[in-house]
Specification:
11 strands, seven-stranded mixed β-sheet, globular, mainly beta, four-stranded antiparallel β-sheet, about 50% strand
Length: about 130
């Protein structure tokens, strides 16, 4: 299983970024996908997850209304569109995958719920 996240960068408050994660080595449309982030000195936290069909999508309260997760099963990609970025969004962002071949799922934003992780991509939001 390989997950390759990219698209991070430095933006000003209120700006936007889109993170991408390319997946390979597993049956992509059988896996829940998620984005996590880890800020300096803080624990890794779940940002958003999406079920295999996209029927179930969840967000952390801190990003609801600003971030949008999506997936492209044909191309084995998952995205995180981040709008209206705030300084507190500064973190290393990780994509993660777990085998849950269900169209609908309950909220799944716990670190321990995911077996497969990509390397992180840094997002820095400055005022």
């Amino acid at each position: 299983v390989q997950l390759q996240a990219y698209g991070g960068g430095s933006v000003q408050v209120g700006g936007s970024l889109t993170l991408s994660c390319a997946a390979s080595g597993f049956t992509f449309d059988h896996y829940v996908l998620a984005w996590f982030r880890e800020a300096p000195g803080k624990e890794r936290e779940g940002v958003s997850c999406i079920s295999v069909s996209g029927d179930s999508i969840y967000y952390a309260d801190s990003v609801k209304g600003r971030f949008t997760i999506s997936r492209d099963n044909a191309n084995h990609m998952v995205y995180l569109q981040m709008d209206n970025l705030k300084p507190e969004d500064t973190a290393v962002y990780y994509c993660a995958a777990d085998f849950v071949p269900l169209a609908t799922i309950t909220k799944r934003l716990g670190v321990r719920q995911y077996d497969h992780w990509g390397q992180g991509t840094q997002v820095t939001v400055s005022s």
